[in-house]
Amino acid sequence: MESVFHEKQEGSLCAQHCLNALLQGAYFTPVDLATLGQQLDDEERARMAEGGAESEDYRAFLQQPSGNMDDSGYFSIQVLSAALKVWGVDLVPYSSRNPIALAAKANPVNQRAFICNFKDHWLTVRKLGNQWFNLNSLLTGPELISNTYLALFLTQLQHEGDLQRALELSRRAIEEDESEELKAAMMLSIQDSGVLREGGRGA
């Protein structure tokens, strides 16, 4: 069996655990994600200011809390998307008409990974080698799942709430365009040690 990187839940840092599970290594910290969240806040503030720094809309915007992160350590889909762009990975909404999303719905087992949001909790479902794993940080360790279970799992998420928020597909638009860095990281994470490796900070 392949070595699988899995972080257990700490606080509300499910976004960090989700991203690290996807990339199979401790690549992101809360500080990294908070920095990205702050950058997104600054960009949104600059766009709003274009309409006039004295406008009622701008003043109202300044009174609102960040939509990208909160004090508990929860991060938005925009932060996850920005984090993955560092690795050249694009998030494609599962509910979109994008060809990647349509292909994922038609044949989910042919994809490489899904990032899901269920009741404000981020989690990754990831293929490693020829096996699928539920890498939810609320689990005590990686959960091996079958192709059949994967399809049922995705279907259940679709019917539990808002599909736009419930499920986001994360994969490369062109698999052949993987960076050498990411290939190397993935190869390091898939070892023939015969054990499941738990990484990161345990909660």
Would you mind describing this structure in some detail?
This protein has 203 residues and is of the alpha+beta class. The chain has a single domain (5-198), classed as Cathepsin B, Chain A (Alpha-Beta Complex). It has helices at residues 14-23, 30-49, 56-63, 77-85, 99-106, 147-160, 163-166, 180-189; strands at residues 5-6, 90-93, 113-117, 122-128, 131-134, 143-145, 167-171, 197-198. The strands form two sheets. The protein has a six-stranded antiparallel β-sheet with strand order 2-7-3-4-5-6, with helices on both faces. A two-stranded parallel ribbon has the order 1-8. A hairpin with a 4-residue loop joins strand 3 and strand 4 (122-128). Helix 2 crosses helix 4. Residues 161-178 and 183-203 have low confidence and may be disordered.
Question: Which key terms come to mind for this protein?
Answer:
single chain; 203 residues; alpha+beta; Cathepsin B, Chain A; 6-stranded antiparallel β-sheet; 41% helix; 16% strand; disordered C terminus
Treating each run of at least 4 consecutive H or I residues as one helix, how many helices?
Answer: 8
- Rg: 18 Å
Structural class: alpha+beta
Termini distance?
Answer: 25 Å
Largest sheet: 6 strands, antiparallel
